[in-house]
Amino acid sequence: MEQFNVYIPVENTLDQCLKCNICTSVCPVAAVTDLFPGPKYTAPQAGRFRHPGEPTADISVDYCSGCRVCNQACPTGVKIAEMNARARAAIVQQGKVPLLRRIRNNIIARSETVGKVGQPIAPLANFVLNLRPARWLAEAVLGIGRQAPLPRFAKECFTTWFAHHTPQNKSISDVVYFHGCSSEYFEPHVGRAAIRVLERNGFRVIVPRQNCCGLPLLSNGEFPAARAYHSRNVAYLREYASAGIPIVGTSTSCTLTLKEEASDLLDMHDPDARRVSEQTFDINEFLLNALANGQLQPGEYPISLDLIYHAPCQYRAHRLGYPALEILKLIPGLSVNNSRADCCGIAGTYGIKVEKFHIAMAVGKSLFEQVKETGAPLAICDSETCRWHIAKATGVPCVHPIELLAVSYGFEPEGSLKTVLAQ
Q: What residue ranges in 295-406 does DSSP mark as E strands?
């Protein structure tokens, strides 16, 4: 499967807008709140009047969640979500975001820093973050919604485990694993499942130095900080990309950022950044390619469950179809139904904010109802923040597809999957 990396500058797509209003009609945020007038009005329509150094649109553009549903629906390829992201960054730089909100945004957007602080004291940090008074205080002082889903810090970092891991199978080719902040600090079991699946199919996994992909900073309009993050990742990964070694990630947001989000928003299209972009793959995209080349083994052990799968917005933005559904077909006994929902509502850090939490819940309502209606003990989703949001809103644990494939290969289940399969 070839990458789709033809770059068209964001501003160059503005005049392709037909004013058809399709983007506004499909926008999940505009459908549930009047705080966001709709993608057309804040992006191409308002974009025609924006010039460097001059005032941007009003603060309503900050209510765009960046889900990219508008981009997918646009018949002419206008980069609507990117225009809104750039407008948000201008608002931030112009000081239009209240100081406390900007402090809050910078805290929740620096997931790597939060992970480094909280993970070494995981039991204490998890205890404090679950205290009702602590959540009320965080909401009152910082504007972090007390009901919003927050991940639990892991007892051990993924890279700590990997440093002591011994591959069990012979390798036929190399692959780089981009673990992201989630697998490193909050869900190392997802990273372990990915390593086991890759190694089972003959890949030698390399885990080089890396940092946060920078997407949370991009989403909060902190472009200078995001540029520094992306520049470092390109420097860490360019030698592998130049050698033709695939860079594979389990976070759909991280891989989209490495593929195009950071480069497009920050105008970083130098040769090294482009090579990293071209060599980056979502793990199910990579495995589907391996399957087509006869390199991927089917699952051996059945998982007799009927589950619902939700493809995150950031995953659909890869323009790959639904590779996860094809990979899940390799697991005997497993029946998977695709959700009919456009978005779960969380949009990374968007739904954590107290002023947007109710919007996130309203956007995700139809998905939550579908998950509950199945009566299944699990749901499936590729994005970590979506998994946390779905689980918190429904009470149904949500797992990454790679976890199920690893169990079907005979590896011990971990986390919520272990609890469910033990029943």
A: 306-310, 335-338, 379-381, 398-399
- What letter represents residue 159's amino acid? T
Residue 6's pLDDT band (cuts 50, 70, 90): low
**Residue 189 to residue 419: CA distance in whole angstroms:** 14
DSSP state of 265: H
For the chain, what's the residue count? 423
Mean pLDDT of 332-351: 93
Enumerate the β-bridge partners of residue 353: 144
**Cα-to-chain-centroid distance, residue 95:** 28
Q: Write down the domain spans for the chain.
A: 10-93, 306-422
**What are 103's two structure tokens?**
């402090």
Single-letter residue type at 140:
A
Selected from 3.40.50.670, 1.10.1060.10, 1.20.120.450, 2.40.50.140, the CATH number assigned to the domain covering 10-93 reads 1.10.1060.10
List pLDDT tens digits, range 192-223. Answer: 999 999 999 999 999 999 999 999 999 999 99
Tell me which of 1.20.1250, 2.60.40, 3.10.20, 3.40.50 is the CATH number of domain 306-422.
3.40.50
Cα 332 to Cα 341: distance, rounded to the nearest angstrom = 26
Question: What is the dihedral angle through the alpha carbons of 263, 265, 207, 275, rounded to the nearest 10 degrees?
Answer: -10
pLDDT value for 270: 94
Q: Hey, is 378 helix, strand or coil? A: coil
Residue 296 has pLDDT above 90, yes or no: yes
Residue 103, CA distances (Å) to 68, 149, 220 in order: 26, 19, 11
Name the band, by pLDDT with cuts 50, 70 and 90, for residue 3. Answer: very low
Residues 162-180 have a mean pLDDT of 91
| Per-position DSSP letters for 28-80, written without gaps between them | TTTTT-TTS--HHIIIIIHHTT--TTS--S-GGGGG-----HHHHH-TT---H
What are the strands, taking DSSP E only, across 185-286? 203-206, 247-249, 280-282
Residue 329 scores a pLDDT above 60: yes
The count of C-alpha atoms lying within 13 angstroms of the C-alpha of 257, restricted to the half-sphere facing its C-beta, is: 26
Residue among 386, 379, 376, 299 at smallest CA distance from 339: 379
